[in-house]
Design goal:
Radius of gyration: 21 Å
Largest sheet: 2 strands, antiparallel
Strand content: under 5%
Amino acid sequence: MSSIYELDGRIPVAQALPLGLQHILAMFVANITPIIILSNAVALDQALSATLIQNCMVIAGIGTLIQLYPIWRIGSRLPIVMGISFTFLSLAIIIASTQGMGTLMGAVIVGGVIEGCLGLFPKLWTKLIPKVVAATVVAAIGISLLPIGSNSFGGGQGAADFGSRANWIVGSITLLICLVTFVFGKGIVRSLSILIGLIGGYVVSLFMGMVSFEALRDVSLVSLPHFMPFVPEFHLDAILAIVCVYFVSATETIGDTSAICSGALGRNVQRKEMGASVACDGFVSTIAGMFGCTPITSFSQNVGLATLTKVVNRFAIASGAVILVLSGFVPAIGAVLATIPPCVLGGCSIMMFGSIVFAGFDMMARCGFSQRNMVIVSLSLSIGLGFTAVPSIFDIFPTIVRTVFAQNPVALVFLIAVILNLVLPKDKDEKVVEE
């Protein structure tokens, strides 16, 4: 049983599958949503949209497998789950709407190579990220996710029944099942607390008539992913804009890598792990562009799941990645998972996202509460979270600045924390990330 709490512990497939499925259920909707929104925004036909959704599941599974089982220096060997990033969505819509999907894919491909190469040389940039900066970014990631969990709990932002009695009931029951199972469960039951809560909430939502199976009617049994659905075009302005957002994505991956080490593994992140995570982020995003998808990144909700349950077994999480890949070849699997109501996912997310915030605070405590650290943490969070809560404050800036920072608190927190770390006098005992 203790093997599930070890990176390389040997566990049977029957035990690995539910643990892996738990991770996939935690991120599935978030993984396909950016592609759905992009497809609707640029008016792609239904068949092409379905192809892109299918492709993004395969790419997320491949990215996760490479992160777990590295190829050369690409992949951290940490229990990190990858998926399609929301960070690029607004810029992707602008580029695709004005210059076409081919231009967007060309920018994604080139930008991914640039980020990937950045990850191969961590010594050039990890000295900019001491432990207090990493801790601040982790806390910002957790705090920025809280509204997402709350929106899901209410039924999904923009839903006609948002905040309805039914959503409150199902979300609360789901959360209660997760909490009771986690607090009073033992062994494998406790490790599967999120999955048990999700199943319980889904059953309740079925009885309340909140689940629709309409999408299953026209789903084919088997379908192959489509390589190069768009012919890439390479335009410098689009590439430069996308590269700026790639740096933001790298920031999130760095924070997630730090959080998984601190919260789930109980140790500090190593320099090579940071670089390898970013390299995977970039190079797999290039592959994503070849399949018509926007870039991938690490998924913070899965970091929260690992932090909460302490299940870090690579084989268990890899089984979930295999499920993702199979979902891309068997569309019915994805269609069934997509029937889970948002309020059920929200009930599961509340605990997971809060655990990321706690991991950030725990990292801060290890850094110490010196005056310098207090200034870095407090000012970075105040500006990063405060300014992005009122995005109109960025209206005087160019479009690229608004795109990167106006609604991305993690990016702004990271920038402010790095600048403060560079300009404030150093503490004598301060250390950067470990080798």
